[in-house]
## 1
Amino acid sequence: MSGQSKRTRGSDRTQTVHGLLRRYFPILAWGREYSSRTLLNDLIVAAIVTVMLIPQSLAYALLAGLPAQVGLYASMAPLVIYAVFGTSRTLAVGPVAVSSLMTAAAAETIAAQGSPEYLGAAIALALISGLLLLVMGLLRLGFLANFLSHPVISGFITASAIQIAASQCAPLLGIRADGHSFLDVFVSLARNLGETHPYTAAIGLASLVFLFWVRHSLKPLLRGLGVGERAADILAKAGPAAAIVTTTSVVWGFGLAAHGVRIVGAVPQGLPRLALPPLDPALWTKMLVPALLISIVGYVESISVALTLAAKRRQRVDPDQELVALGMANVGAAVSGGFPVTGGFARSVVNFEAGAETPAAGAFTAAGIALATLFLTPLLYFLPNATLAATIIVAVLSLVDIGALKRTWAYSKADFAAMAATILATWAEGVEAGLVVGVGLAIFLHLYASSRPHIAVVGQLPGTAHFRNVARHTVVTDPEILSLRVDESLYFPNARFIEEFIHEAVAANSAIRHVILECPAVNVIDASALESLETINRRLKDGGIRFHLSEVKGPIMDRLKGTHFLEALTGKVHLSQFDAVSSINAELARRTLQARRL
Amino acid sequence: MSGQSKRTRGSDRTQTVHGLLRRYFPILAWGREYSSRTLLNDLIVAAIVTVMLIPQSLAYALLAGLPAQVGLYASMAPLVIYAVFGTSRTLAVGPVAVSSLMTAAAAETIAAQGSPEYLGAAIALALISGLLLLVMGLLRLGFLANFLSHPVISGFITASAIQIAASQCAPLLGIRADGHSFLDVFVSLARNLGETHPYTAAIGLASLVFLFWVRHSLKPLLRGLGVGERAADILAKAGPAAAIVTTTSVVWGFGLAAHGVRIVGAVPQGLPRLALPPLDPALWTKMLVPALLISIVGYVESISVALTLAAKRRQRVDPDQELVALGMANVGAAVSGGFPVTGGFARSVVNFEAGAETPAAGAFTAAGIALATLFLTPLLYFLPNATLAATIIVAVLSLVDIGALKRTWAYSKADFAAMAATILATWAEGVEAGLVVGVGLAIFLHLYASSRPHIAVVGQLPGTAHFRNVARHTVVTDPEILSLRVDESLYFPNARFIEEFIHEAVAANSAIRHVILECPAVNVIDASALESLETINRRLKDGGIRFHLSEVKGPIMDRLKGTHFLEALTGKVHLSQFDAVSSINAELARRTLQARRL
């Protein structure tokens, strides 16, 4: 952080107990202003969000290969903890689709779905992920999330969403699909399509059509019927709950479970017991990388949602404290038997649009889910898995962003390559491989691009003090002077390129006596580039050529002053390219004059 | 490649048979002008270099854990092949210290020193390394070498040189040293110091003192005695040969081999037979990464020597063709029973200073070594290993660059960290770990640094059109306008930082109605940054703030024109920061006026 932000943050960092408390417990700030009006408002919001969250929580638990109640557990403690530590007023944390998929992918490497070891691995993932986020927050390592470039994260989410949607076709149609990678699952689905279970498929497809209709057409319809904007919005979000109530009643009423429709079955009633996940070092070692990836992907989604919502009301979100809050929320999820959670887009938007004013709304939502866990789970017995599958498919398909692929292709082929590689690797080798390949390729392509910066040979625009690319403008050049403008910072990926460029340019033209490097776009000169500049200077000197710099920025000049380079430089550092050329010409003229006199 | 270089190279790329032949066979260029005068000169140079190379070749073979003759084999075919394919007139290829150490480190993972499998692995390394270099050259992948930043390569060479010198203390003193890592060897040496073999140590230390004296004091002494500059230089380089002749005679004359002085022993007479190394897929898979690292480290050393020497005579070196030439040289080394080679600094400088004019000098040197292999090997029987150890120690200690550590520390802590990590990892875990850690850390620190660019809040210098940092200058600012200058390209490592910076700055000041981002130092806007700019624009719009850009470079503007961003932008793109502020003020004034009129 620098500039204004550094000063603003400086005050937060005041190392008084009071300052630290306010920094790490944002609840102390908003809690003080909490009024009975806010309380009533937050309670209403909580009721709305609870209705939306129950089906989502169950569905994502099944997506993660876990018992349904684990989804409810993961939607209680994290919400309360986030209310204490979070800086966003409206973020709603809980299980989300992509991290549920990542949880399943990681836990499957430990044990088979349904085993206690599988559940233990999922809970351990939440704990490790929580601790990693906490450490990142306390050490201010949030920048690690930057390594996930937009195209990589966008490609990853699109690939994951399509993979999730495909995998959910199995419960939706009542068929089996095997395999870990998307390709395996896809082939297996296509092969088993003939075994579709008619009742299950009827329920699943009806739910799917209903949910798509709710999402796309219910709100305009309600508005047309004279329902208010906000009420229409909220009613439309209750679609999944309505689908669950209806299909559960149908399965119960017609006894479809006896006809082979798979149902959720007995969900244990009551709140989770507090416990630690297995502290097996071998398990932790294996879960470390998946937990790191889950943390970073979750954080990127969460902070982006938080900033977007905060901006609408000009509120502040502290990215480092958000890491702490998400870390604590995940630790809370783990000790209360849940799996990894993060700030989700859909649930946060509902929370925001329903009018949440403080994180207390989240805590009340947790209370709502606790009540449901205590009293409503018997009602979920006949809930068909196909309905939950339909809920997931509708939710994740909204994450698929084909437009982003097109836009990226049009804007930058390198970014598109990273995006496409992420998608293909995710499908072929799984979520971890997808992220690693994408991040690796993005870094590689970035270094590759900066390894061959744009270097223009420049000349003077006649009658002005301006210098422009000789290839684009009609300019005046001096055969003895080679003026080069490099449009990139000078650092290790391109240091040798610049050496070779100048070597080549000078070897190709024996008239050259001066080389001037114009540096207005050079923001950094690292140790590699400094050494290259020294080498260029020495080699040019060996060839009887003087080396100059021009338009070097202040901070770079400050650093160069401490080095041997400026002493060794055969030419000078000029304030502007015009000064450089003028002073060289003046010197040449003076020498010619002296030579004539002698 | 761009600008002038692109045009210059364009002609090389002419896809005629003639052009291709000249490109890939530089011998066709210099061979045509070859005269009897050049021939005589090159023959004299070859005689001088041969005398220097024989001890070096033997010593580096022993350093690589190989039989002495392998060093001679590696100094024949590669020199001839480089003469055909190389673009440097004076580069001398052969075994060098660092790649010999790397060869030993890799081959030791396959088999014990002295076994045929160990030799096979070393030869396979040369072949794989050669093929990799060839592919890199043909596909123009030389930029891969850029990933080795100067501090990393410098740290690596210093660490390797110290490690080599330490390991050679064992043969120098006639003691044993075990272990793979430097730390193991060091501990083992210290423990066995009591078992020093007196005769061996006497020969070793005497050679060491003599060679140091030759290197530092012989040349001034000879010059004082009236010997010419060049002759003094050449005589000083013959030091190792003199040490070998003397100590071999002493060992033979006094029968010291019977007293336990270890000698080279029987070296097979005659030229190597052409053969392929073992084509075992498991061996190749294991040798792939070491071969890649040997190739890149070798290439970096070689191209740097070639460019430095070429610059002294304003000759040209083509970095891509150098990859081809080194690749062919290594393939040649492999099929003639040698181990990895590269362009060495010491031998190339001797070649240059002795007056080599064409690569033919190298070919004649190869002939000289061939003659030695045919007729002189019996004379090497009594050559003590201690003398070769002394030769290696003196040679490698000149590679240790403690000054570079100090300079890097003073100039850049990040670069120093990469350097120190390379050294420590090389010593603790070996050469491959050292390079991987160094490169990884350098890339990480680079991304870290660019993840938090300098962003200045700027204001207008009173009475001028210039805008400067508010923290450094007395400037005029408008409370409704936030002007920011970002001193870095906008791309994924910093895209989110800029989002957060603007979010923070705007949330901290509710008076702001316009944000202007001044972009004179922005050389690139990648897809991540574009998305961040769109997000910033959308969030500012939600908060009732307009977003402007100023001083956007032409090529960036060209790319932005194809995107949705410019349409969505709530403000404008202004030519200069002054234009931006003026036009916003003009609009504000017009509105105020309109409001008053109404």
## 2
Amino acid sequence: MNQSLADRTIEPKTTPHERQLTVVKIGGAAGIDFGPLCDDIAALSRQGRRFIIVHGGSDATTTLSRRLGLEPQFITSPSGHTSRRTDRATLEAFQMACRGIVNQELVRRLVQSGVNAVGLSGLDARLWAGPRKAAVRAIEDGRVRIIRDDYTGAVERVDPRVLTTLLDAGFMPVVSPPALSEACEPINVDADRAAAQTAVALGAQTLIMLSNVPGVLRTAHDDTTLIRCVLRSGLASMDAVAQGRMKNKVLAAREALEGGVSRVIIGDARAASPLSMALEGAGTVFA
Amino acid sequence: MNQSLADRTIEPKTTPHERQLTVVKIGGAAGIDFGPLCDDIAALSRQGRRFIIVHGGSDATTTLSRRLGLEPQFITSPSGHTSRRTDRATLEAFQMACRGIVNQELVRRLVQSGVNAVGLSGLDARLWAGPRKAAVRAIEDGRVRIIRDDYTGAVERVDPRVLTTLLDAGFMPVVSPPALSEACEPINVDADRAAAQTAVALGAQTLIMLSNVPGVLRTAHDDTTLIRCVLRSGLASMDAVAQGRMKNKVLAAREALEGGVSRVIIGDARAASPLSMALEGAGTVFA
């Protein structure tokens, strides 16, 4: 057998650029069809690009909670960031929605597109670890309330070994919350910021966050006010512009850039080839 | 640094026997505390043994289905094997229970015991694949009824690559249904038989199935009638003895033995050190 031909068959001809690692955060909001996105990921993967997919399960958790008779509640922190009120019963619904519904469907759809996708949560091999908040501060009717039985926190340590093991063997990790607290409890963490920490820990060149908006809008719901580019010097001013869920994405973008990620793009998951579009610079580019 | 000492530190001194691979199927029935079992798995793992953990989620699915207002139904096949009636809504509950509750709790508890556990489903990287049954035959009031919208099947192909990749890097896979149908749908499969197929595909020496009974009983609910040993020549006679869920375990044992697994043990998950006990031959040993 011709050895050089065999080598070419096994290992696609790649440039260093093509072997770059990109972390892709996929929003789970209503209106996103995983089909075109997964086909796009598969096509780019066949070209030799390496991806880690990260997702949350916010909307699926809301739907499931209602089916279980648990009315979803949200908390706004004094700094204006929104998070889900996560008591023990909601934590269980969150895990079922993230792991049992969204992660399984993404993995299934990627496998259907020919990708060797492997689903993980932050619990697996201590992939995402961080402290559980002892007290959550919530603004209610203009006053600060302290909540102590919440299962939320933030990812502070990423153990990259399971990700690098899978990537090196040709698998594509698909990661979702929860993360693991110091007391080995599952905790609800923001998936945008967890994706940023993952990109930093793995030395990814690019972080892409796709959701059901075109990018950061100067005026909410007005797509014509899309902000095309944010330089590092203009990052601070973004805090005033971004509202709601976008606030967490802008914070995640800043954390990724500060951690050494070269480029962050907030793009539209609803496009025909959403990942290709974002990689070409559609959406809001932070550089 | 003393090189031979360093080698000993990194790679525990093992005999070939100690590096043997064992597939452990854990039953999810009520009355099983994962704590002692996970501590036992961790201790044996530190001694150099390698394990693949397999579990189902039958009882968790029943509980969740009821919470979602879906009354669980079971089907008895003409050959007397029992399976869950799995329509689309039940399939979703099954995935949430297996992946979101049982798998997460097993992984979390193993991680707490110091094991680098990684949760997987049969969908991940096409780990468990097989045909979905076009028609399920169910005995109802002595007559055969044909059900066509059931999402059930059996594992016919195990792709071992994700398991060997993780095992070789020091991770412990924890695998649950569903499996993947030929049309890329999730399907409910019997976890005992899937564990057997996994043991065969990986060349495991031992398959252990732990549940809330001491082993195969000659008379149901009478622990004094435990059958200690079944030789290959006596396998056929077991079909008449085993009832209910035990019928699937005996079938799984036979499939494992026929596929080259040296030893199958059906043991008690409720013992103080359930896995150690089973490895020492407690329960019913098929050899």
## 3
Amino acid sequence: MKTERPQVKQDRAVRTRRAILEAAAVVFEEHGYDAAKLSDIVNIAKVTKGALYFHFESKERLAQAVIDAQNDSQPQLPPQQYRAQDFVDIGMVFSHRLRHEVLIRASTRLTLEYGNRRLDRASPYEAWIDLHVAVLEEAQRRGELLPNVDPVVPSRLIVGAYAGLNTMSYTLGLDLDAQVAELYTHVMPNVVVPAVAIRLDTAPGRGARVLYGPRGAHECRHQCEGGVPPQEPAPQGVRASA
Amino acid sequence: MKTERPQVKQDRAVRTRRAILEAAAVVFEEHGYDAAKLSDIVNIAKVTKGALYFHFESKERLAQAVIDAQNDSQPQLPPQQYRAQDFVDIGMVFSHRLRHEVLIRASTRLTLEYGNRRLDRASPYEAWIDLHVAVLEEAQRRGELLPNVDPVVPSRLIVGAYAGLNTMSYTLGLDLDAQVAELYTHVMPNVVVPAVAIRLDTAPGRGARVLYGPRGAHECRHQCEGGVPPQEPAPQGVRASA
């Protein structure tokens, strides 16, 4: 019997945890928290129930890990001329990721559900608001904002509105990217000075452009097709155990 | 044995139906669709299970009636100088009603859930968007809109954003009215001409003002306190059967 090196064992545990998280995302996205079955999750992840419980104590902890995923692993973006553009890019990149990453979609879905009160649904909102406020405060220091703008106000507005546009787009089968683009196009002229407003890119496809450069849409098609997310490839048929 | 006149019988049936709907709202608001128990609903409504099934064939039909309630019974509002103000008032009055009417709160909650696919969650969005578009088209005919505004775009934006601000406010314990006021304050200057924009009332409390006049907040306190909605008094301890 071969003994494995600790590093190999650890890598495999990380892969297993990831496989479970991705499988949970598929099931939570499809059924929501209450109706999701752990047996479906272990089947999709191709792991044992024991492996699942090794990584996540309960369905609740697993759902919480899915919820928290939306604020982990923010992609590093190239610096922009205006902080206001960075502010816009947070949401435009997120709409790109929502399209391509099931984990992100499931995370927002669980955040938007009203069920199970013990799940912490406030933290994702707060984390997003804090992130937006920090960027907007920096924009303010650089003189990009209109007078008397309290950075908290547009930050809350964008985060809350975004969540609703996400739900509505899902329910009506609309393209979220286009809806989010309209949100920024309508809101930003009342947040930033005109000289900044006219230089912002708030058009659909901005997420792909900032991630992959001016040929974003083309590069995205190249990299994203087949549902493989550009940031973190989904585990494909991983057979793993804890 | 006294025989009742048909009118008396019919009135009672209407009251029973309403009592069940209000009780269902309480339970759906608290637990969501999946976890809601019909036994709790009949207990609160003080009706028999038979009476419930007489009015609503199934839990699903009952939930659908709650969902549909948000678009029924739009309050009649006094005409305003600008159609753009009517556009704003749709949402400001709705945020007032959300505060005071459990049926409206439960309706939006069920609309925002992702669970049970057979419930029709698209219709409320579509009905709200259609209502907004109709008002904005009239505003456009009167020259109130900026050039090249497609009434569908701000209508979708407001309806979707509103839904998210509602969920976020609920989750974070924020005052929805203040969030919605910021939505209109930020969006309307990019929809209507400046001469209309500066005359719009988009401040918090607008819902109460348009319903009760300039002393809206005071009148609201007078009429709304104790959780009794201003438009349709909740049945209080109605003992009714089908």
## 4
Amino acid sequence: MKDKTKKTSGPARLLIGDADTCVDIEYASGFHAVDPIVFFLHGRRRVLVVPDMEATRAQREAHRCVVYTPRALGVQRNQLRSTSSWAAALLAREKMARVSVAPTFPLATARALERKGVRVDVVDPLFPDRAIKTADEIRNIAGAQRAAVEAMRAATEMIRRAKIAGDRRLMLDRKPLTSERVRACIDETLIRLRCICELTIVAGGRQSADPHERGSGPLRAQDPIVIDIFPRHLDHGYWGDITRTLVKGAPSAELTKMYRAVKRAQHEALQRLKPGVVASGIHAGVVKRFVDLGFATGVIDGKHVGFFHGTGHGVGMEIHEAPNLGLRPTRLRAGQVVTVEPGLYYPDIGGVRIEDTVAVTPTGWKYLATCEKGMLI
Amino acid sequence: MKDKTKKTSGPARLLIGDADTCVDIEYASGFHAVDPIVFFLHGRRRVLVVPDMEATRAQREAHRCVVYTPRALGVQRNQLRSTSSWAAALLAREKMARVSVAPTFPLATARALERKGVRVDVVDPLFPDRAIKTADEIRNIAGAQRAAVEAMRAATEMIRRAKIAGDRRLMLDRKPLTSERVRACIDETLIRLRCICELTIVAGGRQSADPHERGSGPLRAQDPIVIDIFPRHLDHGYWGDITRTLVKGAPSAELTKMYRAVKRAQHEALQRLKPGVVASGIHAGVVKRFVDLGFATGVIDGKHVGFFHGTGHGVGMEIHEAPNLGLRPTRLRAGQVVTVEPGLYYPDIGGVRIEDTVAVTPTGWKYLATCEKGMLI
């Protein structure tokens, strides 16, 4: 993975973590850290501190970085597994008495550095440019998104082929069609395309009223089936994200009305996307559309109903990253990649969500991959 | 997933993060957090603060926890996306002026709490019992390990079926057998078993001299092929970990000697495993065995050679967790699950590593799954 930071000025930045806990390290160094490491960036100087066993790989993958091992920095033997000690030794070597860190910087390390007289400033976000994707990054996200679409089509085809039994259960190849079977088909399609999705959602009926419920058991005709696929591409680590809601057989008038409202809200939100637009305004538009169409949001019998999540989120090296299309009044910029995913959820009926991942372009937006939006199959 | 904490006394503990960045939350609450959340544990009281859209799922999955949304805690609208504000509101509600946190607790939140007069103590580890697995947890790890063994066998079979071309390249079905093809076979086997491995290693020849190099391109006869499979089970999130080193065709005398040394070192390390034994002693035994057999460790031409990683690591809800079989003099305890994975690496020859994941039992240890250890195929 290439280093994508362009700026070389500003205060020294210090990062600690592995590839999962501190995505900025891979973003800014190009190195995928299996175990926690230390990364330091000041002007043009980029330094990685990695365990002995990672030194050769780090030199090869992060070719713009100086690579140290803790031993080379003089870290004492009994401190060799303490990344706080690595950071302290590195800052002493760099003669650096002040560093900027992310809000999630580990508290114990900050305190260890402060005890040595280092001033630790929290900066949020530490890499604001990460929200603006390069052409290569957009290509990577589009690759993951195309895999998501292919998996969605495979899932749709399974449901299309199913027959409806007397009790409304869907049957395929003489066995009940379950959330688990559809999910297995999705996951196998994804892995063939070098992608994985850990928490694929295939939630039918009332289960779908809970936006993050993964779903289990037999699927039924006339019920909404929410399928949410958000794969990460194994070759480069970028994510895609798509949701469709399907119904086999004739849905109720209520469910049809919900579906139309969600589809319309998504269409309107997409039409508003362009650089300079305030993210919270797009979200407010969706909220208002639902209210205007008679879909109330609130808490009933202790359960959240209506539309109670954000309209979308940034997608990139993390599945949820900046910018958020919710309550914050940030302005969109060209090069950002976001989902647009309004939804409506009522425990007695189930849920409807339609989600696409799109790039903000200089003049508007574009799909990173297209996929049919019909509910009936 | 069940809540596995048994102790109910001690200081109040505060955790912030999602399922990837703060594994302790799922361990202690049973709730798998897709986005960052707040978890508080004091005596028998367990509280989760989750976004609106997660409230219903949290109530269902974390049935021993009280579940709040930020709104219910009175968090102001412009702070609804700030987990620091959630934590501050929760501690005010709980009338708690002092909390214990993990070393990786986010610095920005700690400072926000300190500004409100809360004392924040770092405790390492915050959940020491997590290293001692329950019978259910060992069953989960064994499930992931069996999947890893099945994938290893599928990969071995591919290499076994390959023919050797004139330039030592392995050929299968008239096409070169590459790291990528073997990895695809492994990954597809895993996903059928509801497991994923993001960074499966299939590294041949000189590539294998770098322990975390994933490997690419054609595989060759007489070269070592290091295959390291560490899957996570999608149903419960526990990991397995196995490595084998294979050679197609006759290896050099040097490579054979390396293989025997690694196999012997692993055997001896396993024989030493039992409760009460000092982890660093096991590691020192492996280091000494290699030295006695003439395999030097050090830095040659800027490259680490010999045996330059730990002998093993704990496995559970994380692929690398406590206890570490390395430099630290911690004593092993029954119920711990560890890898035992000595290796030797020389740039001109390549690498040899043999790894199994085993449970420490009251009287010794046991494999969580068994797999052949022959090098020649």
